[in-house]
Amino acid sequence: MARTFDDATRRNIAELCSAFARLAPADAAPTLKRAAVAIALTEADDGSGAAFLLPRRSARLRAHSAQWALPGGRCDAGETQAEAALRELHEELGMALSDRDVLGMLDDYPTRSGYLVTPVVVWAGANAAIVPNPDEVASVHRIGLDAIELEDAFTFVTIPESSRRVIRFRLGGQHIHAPTAALIYQFREVLAGRNTRVADLEQPVFAWK
């Protein structure tokens, strides 16, 4: 069932994020580069409820080209994770938001490529202008929260290269993998009031570089 996009939903999600028991970074965190992504909440395309923004990266990028990824990137020196997520959201999608729009943060996710990624949940509003940066973003999609709450939205498979399960988020006829799938999955669990951990969910081998 779709969540209406209104102040009540904003308050509810903020309360759920506040109640989420975020884990402190692992001891190995100092060896990883800090990064942050935004789970930016807005209204679904058809006005049917709440959604989050999921861009597809430009095919011209040198790293992870044409992949699905939440808006985000490496934290600059002196930046908090929330500041980095908001800056990247502005650089990639042209959205100017502030600390007042931050609803909470989820667990840090360590990537195979050497980053510790912090998901920052942000209320982008219904009328926020989205102006994708063509150098970084090929397209932007609004994914309804009801889509990630479906029972079969996420699947888990094994690969010979790892003992950890690979998570996949099914979007249409495609599969989106970790880290993006893991972060979206944890957000889905937070919406359900569950403290589900995702750091042990694996990425596919092509994303290890």
Automatic annotation (TrEMBL):
Which cofactors are reported in the record for this sequence?
A: Mn(2+); Mg(2+)
State the family it belongs to: Belongs to the Nudix hydrolase family.
Top-level EC class, please?
hydrolase
- Give the Enzyme Commission number: 3.6.1.55
Q: What does the UniProt keyword field contain?
A: Hydrolase, Magnesium, Manganese, Metal-binding
Organism equals Bradyrhizobium septentrionale
User: What PANTHER family is this protein classified in?
Assistant: MITOCHONDRIAL COENZYME A DIPHOSPHATASE NUDT8, NUDIX HYDROLASE
Decide whether keyword Hydrolase is in the record: yes
Q: Name one GO molecular function term.
A: 8-oxo-7,8-dihydrodeoxyguanosine triphosphate pyrophosphatase activity
Residue ranges occupied by any Nudix hydrolase domain in the UniProt entry:
32-171
Which sequence ranges are marked TM in the entry?
A: none
Q: Which InterPro entries match?
A: CoAse (IPR045121), Nudix_hydrolase (IPR020476), NUDIX_hydrolase-like_dom_sf (IPR015797), NUDIX_hydrolase_CS (IPR020084), NUDIX_hydrolase_dom (IPR000086)
Name of the protein: CoA pyrophosphatase
